[in-house]
Amino acid sequence: RPGKKKTYHKNHTMNDIVQTFGRKKSSIAVAQCQKGKGLMKVNGVPIELIQPQILQYKLFEPILLLGKDKYAQVDIRIRVRGGGQVSQIYAIRQAISKALVAYYQKCKYPNTQITSFSLSLFFIVLKLKKKKRKISMM
Fold first, then answer.
1. Cα dihedral sign for 85, 31, 35, 63?
2. Strand-by-strand arrangement of the 40-42 sheet
3. Helix 114-137 with 56-66: angle, nearest 10 deg
4. DSSP strands (E only) in 1-138
5. What is the pLDDT of residue 51?
6. Which residues lie across from 76 on neighbouring strands?
7. Residue 5 DSSP symbol
8. pLDDT at residue 96 is higher than 70
9. What is the average per-residue pLDDT within 93-97?
10. ∠ Cα 15 21 24 (to 5°)
11. Three-state secondary structure along 46-65?
12. Tell me, what's the pLDDT at 7?
């Protein structure tokens, strides 16, 4: 209907929600980020209960890198499918970091470049880790 705003979840409109994706091999994770209380769920399960436990630290890397205060104001819901456990973890991690940066750019601070800097810092860290891995293998 013309003139009527689309509503998505409860009192949120489509303008309040950011949807991003992350990929690794054949795994695809889609993250929805909206204003909330700091909840993070993957396929309906809290992020703290994701298995394998050894790779949970990889999921928390973007949270630890940017700080928990950035995540306390948003809810992130992630759907992931395809691939194995490890590639799903990496796809989730990428989707989380992209979702938070996109949310702050779109909804909170549309005219600043602080969040772009945070994202570039995150990818620089990832590149350094890959280089370090290649050097140690030789």
1. positive
2. 18-24, 27-35, 74-81, 40-42, 45-46
3. 140
4. 18-24, 27-35, 40-42, 45-46, 74-81
5. 87
6. 33, 40
7. P
8. yes
9. 91
10. 175
11. EHHHCCCHHHHHHHHHHHHH
12. 46
Is 16 within 8 Å of 34 (Cβ atoms)? yes
For residue range 37-92, list pLDDT tens digits in order.
999 999 999 999 998 889 998 888 888 877 788 788 899 999 999 999 999 999 99
Q: CB neighbours of 118 closer than 8 A, spacing ≥ 6?
A: 65, 66, 101
Q: What are phi and psi of 48, to 5 degrees?
A: -70, -20
Neighbours of 89 (CB within 10 A): 25
**Per-residue model confidence as pLDDT tens digits over 36-52:** 999 999 999 999 999 88
Angle at 99 between CA 83 and CA 19, to 5 degrees: 80
Are 50 and 107 in contact by the 8 Å Cβ rule? The answer is no
Place of tokens 């948003």: 74
Cβ contacts of residue 11 below 8 Å, gap of 6+? none
**Interatomic CA distance for residues 108 and 126, integer angstroms:** 26
What percentage of the chain carries pLDDT values higher than 90? 41
The rounded distance, in Å, linking the Cα atoms of 120 and 46 is: 27
